[in-house]
Amino acid sequence: MLVEAQDWGWRHSGRRAWAIRHFNFSMSLGDRVLLLGPSGAGTSTLLAALAGVLGGSDSGEAEGWLGIGGVDPAFVRGGSALMMQDPQAQIVLARVGDDVAFGCENLGVAREEIWGRVGAALEAVGLGLALDHPTNRLSGGEQQRLVLAGALAMQADLLILGEPTANLDQAGLLEVRDAVLAAVADRTRSLIIVEHHAEIWAPHVDRVVVLTKEGIIADGVPDEVFAAMGPDLAAMGVWVPPPIPARPRAGSGVVGQGVVVGQGVGSDVPAGTKASSPILVAQGLAIGYGKTLGQGVGSDVPAGKKASSPILSAQGLVIGYGKTAVGWGLDLVIPGGVSTVITGQNGAGKTTLALTLAGLLPPVEGTVVAGDQLAPVGRPYPYTWKSRELLTRVGMVFQSPDHQFVSATVFDEIAVGLRAQKRGREETEETVRALMAELGLDHLARANPFSLSGGEKRRLSVATVLASQPAVIILDEPTFGQDRRTWAALIEIVGRLRDRGHTIISITHDQGYVEALGENRIEL
Amino acid sequence: MTASVESNVNCRKNSGTRELTRGDSRTVLLASLVNGFLSLGRTSKLALRSAGVTVPMSVPMSGRTVPMSAGVPMSGNVPVSRVAWVNPVTRLAGALILSLPLFLTLDWVSAVTVVGLEIGVWLGVHPGERWRQVRRLALRSIPFLIAAPLAGLSLALYGKPAGQTFFAWGLIEISEQSLSYAAAVAARVVALGMAAIITLSDVDPTEMADGLAQVWRLPARFVLGTLAGVRLISVLTADWKTMELARRARGLGDHRAIRRFATLAFALLVSAIRRGSTLATAMEARGFGEGERTWARPSTLGRADLIYYLVTVMVVGVGLLVSLITGHFRWIGDVL
């Protein structure tokens, strides 16, 4: 047995409840196990224990036995390699090659061998970058692959992955999965994965283990476990096939899509949607930080595509950073009252585009123009608006909710925008209560925003934007890190907003989200 | 490109026998955050990465990082000054060698001579168009050029008077001697500043860490903890930027700047703690802090380092010699 647990448990110091208890488990070298469980079931504690990073007796109290190869993981150096969520926080060094080499160095691998391993690991994860490529110029997906490469290079017997594909677009996700599978293909090492997206891994693992607060409630081959427990797992938030169906617009049959991929991106609006004048128009827009962009690339929107009722458009848009333009000549038009979904590969500049459209970053070249129904009279450029003027016009839900929290309680957090608008106290209270009820946050009114779970934080960040009722709501990767349950709730909420007449612009790489809400689709 | 890299140099077996608990690595990270803030400067150009956005970051690269014998691809030749062949720890030592005599003496001749030589060295080691190099040096010297007259002023007004007195009012007495002290201090500030610019600008933090650990044998735990902390700072700077944008988006961007700053600072602290402990865990999971360690990048001393030491000593020596010969030489003790 490579991994063996006998009645193992762990209680973090200062906590009364055990994070995980009565855990009995074993796996042999070469086994691949998918570990599922609702949040709070102790999966992350288990992963930390297996990786030997739970800490000593000052961090908590252990009971029973957990061992890798018969040794307590805390004392096996390089016995296991761990990859967690949030790759950005796991990158140690400034250059790609150095970062991959870091683990090998710590394990005392000889120099000549290290660079061989680094090259092989980078190739395995499909990260075709130079060794001295700076690690702070990687997209989320590249970061994730870098961290995976660092884990692979350690050549540990046990590879432990905690939500390894959370940051990735569909293509990147499959690439990382295949890299992992290739690394364990010869069965000389074992694999433990914790992942909400069970459907990605299920066909490739030997066993599925379902862990809850009550302990392991299922352990068997994937087909049997899913057949027996599919609905239960879905209720826990685990993604099991079949996927959730799209959410069509209420009352409107036609949901079209206009996608033009290439140098220029045009978007045209479904024929069935009501004609309205554009809310935002961006022209010759180049986005980025600083003003160091090159020439705008000319766009060629196919002549046959007519742009009806645009809301926002860009021409010759260039995105980039530093002195290197990585961007596209981009024409884009956002129709009012419609849900527009912007997709694109990791690193395509989606977030920069969102921040620019939201009037938070100045366009480097060109303009973002808001339609008459949106703009204050005579001032069509969102970036020139005051913060308070933005509030009721364009709302932005940031990718990481933590970045937008400013208050000590959930209630105050939602009230921030209303107070900035100097709304009355009663009106504020009423609006906040209504929003908390609608988004399932009412029991958390006095909780600190930073203490919420991932799903709650996301709903709160949406609530803060909704409070001031902006005409346009921009969401950056809204489903990032959500389990199936909170995902479905979010789709519901955004769909409802769209039905109420808000213009929705979503940046996403979530295929399910695109199917549910991509009435108008733009691919970068 | 890697002329000074010798791949056959033994890497140092680190004898770190002490086990690193997580508490330890956190402490190191926290300490390194502080270090990092002090030493950052150049790195503060940031990446808005937490939002998934990348922003420009000019990362200086030199060829000495990766041994060519490993047969690994490098991303093209980046033109760097000849100083890049010198091990960063040698450059650090050079800064100390240059500053020590300047701290111990106080006369304008030695300082001015050193400044002149420093400019000459700068032009000598930085290839490319001369005027552009002079401009670069001047731009980087601006803080010192501002500080120098201010430092000189106090000595001009309050320095020990001697020789002809030009002006006196209360405690203030501007004399021949106090003016010469003032000139000496002002020239010194510029000389020290330029010494720091020449020796330490464009030092790559990773290479500095390699040098400190392998050449100077500082504890790997401390050196690498600091290095990781420095990297974390650019991440935190990006967090800060994103949070500023978020405040504008939430209608808080117009007024109450102080209050906004306070909430930003708190949010950044939360973020720093979270990121710091994740990083500590990640480092620990990759075997950091226990037992013997190898080094993927050799950090060695070579002929370039010897030349560098010679030039540094020469600059200081010539400065002192000129002031001795011209009779201006003065110990700092004579002034106080």
| N→C terminal distance of chain B | 49 Å
CATH superfamily of the domain at 3-236 in chain A: P-loop containing nucleotide triphosphate hydrolases
Oligomer: heterodimer
Through-space gap between termini of chain A: 48 Å
Strand order of the largest sheet of chain A: 5-6-7-3-8-9
Q: What is the overall silhouette of chain A? A: globular
Question: What's the number of helices of chain B?
Answer: 9
Characterise this structure.
The complex is a heterodimer of chains A (524) and B (336). In chain A, helix 2 (96-106) packs parallel to helix 4 (140-153), helix 3 (111-124) crosses helix 4 (140-153) and helix 10 (410-420) crosses helix 11. By secondary structure, chain A is an alpha/beta fold. Chain A is 29% helix and 20% strand. In chain A, strand 6 (158-162), helix 5 (170-183) and strand 7 form a beta-alpha-beta unit. Chain A has 14 helices and 19 strands. Chain A has a domain at 3-236: 3-Layer(aba) Sandwich (Rossmann fold). In chain A, the strands form four sheets. Chain A has a six-stranded mixed sheet, sandwiched between helices. Chain B is mainly alpha-helical and 336 residues long. Chain B contains nine helices and two strands; from the N terminus they run ααααββααααα. Chain B has helices at 22-39, 88-104, 108-125, 130-158, 176-200, 205-214, 220-249, 257-285, 303-325, and strands spanning 165-169, 172-175. In chain B, strands 1-2 form a two-stranded antiparallel ribbon. In chain B, strand 1 and strand 2 form a beta hairpin. In chain B, helix 1 (22-39) crosses helix 8. At the A-B interface, strand 5, helix 2, helix 3, helix 4 and helix 8 of A face helix 7 and helix 8 of B.
In short:
The complex is a heterodimer of chains A (524) and B (336). Chain A has 524 residues and is α/β, with parallel strands linked by helices.
